[in-house]
Protein 1
Amino acid sequence: MTLSFLMNIVLDLFFPKFCCGCKKYGSFLCDDCEADIKYVESSVCIVCQKPSSSGLTHIGCATKYTPEKIYSPMVYKGPVKKIIHWAKYRKAYRVLDPLMELFLLSLEEDGVELGERSVVIPIPLHWRKFINRGFNQSEYIAQKLAEEYKLVLNVKALSKVKNTKSQVGLKKNQRKDNMEGVFRVNPWREKEVRGKDIILFDDVATSHATFLSASKSLKKAGCRYIYCFALAKD
Ligand SMILES: [Zn+2]
Ligand SMILES: [Zn+2]
């Protein structure tokens, strides 16, 4: 019996499972709420947000710092939004498990290529926010992805060095300024990403400014391709 197995039993005793969508007892996501989840109908280019097949970055939009594609299958509303909020503000990341299962299923159904030797990197939190919150929900889902596909998880190479203001209410160019120099590849860990293909993972893709900023830092450090994954698209 592993410690995490025991932990789960203890957690189940003290925190019985309720559906995050409708509060029904039994699981974190009941069948009715699961049926309510909306999936993104057409993928977009991460730079201009206009339709693009398979979420590939348009040739005309790409620079040497932009990611190669973005994949975020679910729409950030209804039960998806409730679960992600729940995980973030009530420090109960296990509620993300059913969403992660759906995400893995979508990856398979959509035939998304991950690359055999890709390194999975979660979007990091600023250390102050990390201490405040106690965990990084993106790290939790990134770990699940890495386990499922037997890929390397790297949570140390990329750091968030600027504690950003909320992006809400900012115009597009203000968002870009807000995200300038936010991430940094730790110099003594550059070799862990140089020449590598990276899967950047976050829970929600909102303005894409976060992904673009993290991607710039990683590409400056010499990584090859970057695929941005998020559970949901806002
Ligand atoms: Zn429900
Ligand atoms: Zn584009």
Protein 2
Amino acid sequence: MATSIKDLPRDEVVMKGHGACAGCPSTLALRIAGKAFGPNAVCVMTPSCTVASLGLIPKAAYDYPILNVCFATAGSSASGIVYAYESLYKKGKLTGEMPTVFTWIGDGGTYDIGLQAISAAAERNDNYIFICYNNEAYSNTGVQRSGATPKFAATTTTPQGKMEDKKNMPLLMLDHQIPYLATASLAYPTDFYDKLVKAKNTRGFKYIEVFAPCCTGWKFPSSDMIRISRMAVTSGAWLLYEAENGKIKFNGPTAKIMEGKVELSPLEDYFSCQGRFASINRAANKEEIIAEAKNKILADIEFMKKRAAF
Ligand SMILES: Cc1ncc(C[n+]2csc(CCOP(=O)(O)OP(=O)(O)O)c2C)c(N)n1
Ligand SMILES: [Mg+2]
């Protein structure tokens, strides 16, 4: 049975005094991960907002051991930790439950700079949970475009709006034939929590990507973070699903969208509350741009329906 919000453990691993922006989605998502994994866990991070705001000694505000590594080793550092633990347990030098090893890495570190080592770890089916928090930009260094930035979104390197579509990283990871993969949203925290617990209890390589609307980079009031998280799902801009041994199951509103039981909410509403899409409003061909973005979403939905039935 799905967990209710009242059932979530009270444990907090994100401590007070951290330097994250108010309404930071990564920080909230980390709190939920801490509840799912419990105290016996080890985390690997690459340079990112989370490292800068929570992970740096002497101001580290996360109650886990954190290994802060360079981007290119995003996937391989966690593999090394797992192999070391497995060897120590085998030799009897460690006993008890092995800690949950997980990564907490941004979209820049996942989609772009760390991709090679992540792909290799997935292909080896290394026993850890790769978590990507996707704020659709290189936020920490001033909001540059990444492979996860959607078309038309303005960043500091695409001031007129990005001209290319984003990569479909979850599908790319699914094609590594890993035992568990999930997408998640902070508007559906118990769905996210259940997916984290499932990943913890699955052996092999697990990939979870949580959608993380960044108020600073996307230019909206911090109090709107959950509302925007929800609109991304209801408009079809972010699809919620999981795949156990490659079998896709849609979750929450995405399941209803796939079954044709609910209409997509207006994409215009999702765009209009974010400053990064402001140039769409100013464009002479505004209708054309919105129609193109909607058609892309519809095409992705049709593709995923067929992919899930396959
Ligand atoms: C190899 C390398 N290139 C660039 C940087 C500079 N850098 C530090 S954090 C960062 C942004 C990371 O973006 P993302 O992984 O999406 O995390 P976010 O900042 O959005 O939380 C960059 C480019 C670096 N540290 N190392
Ligand atoms: Mg990012």
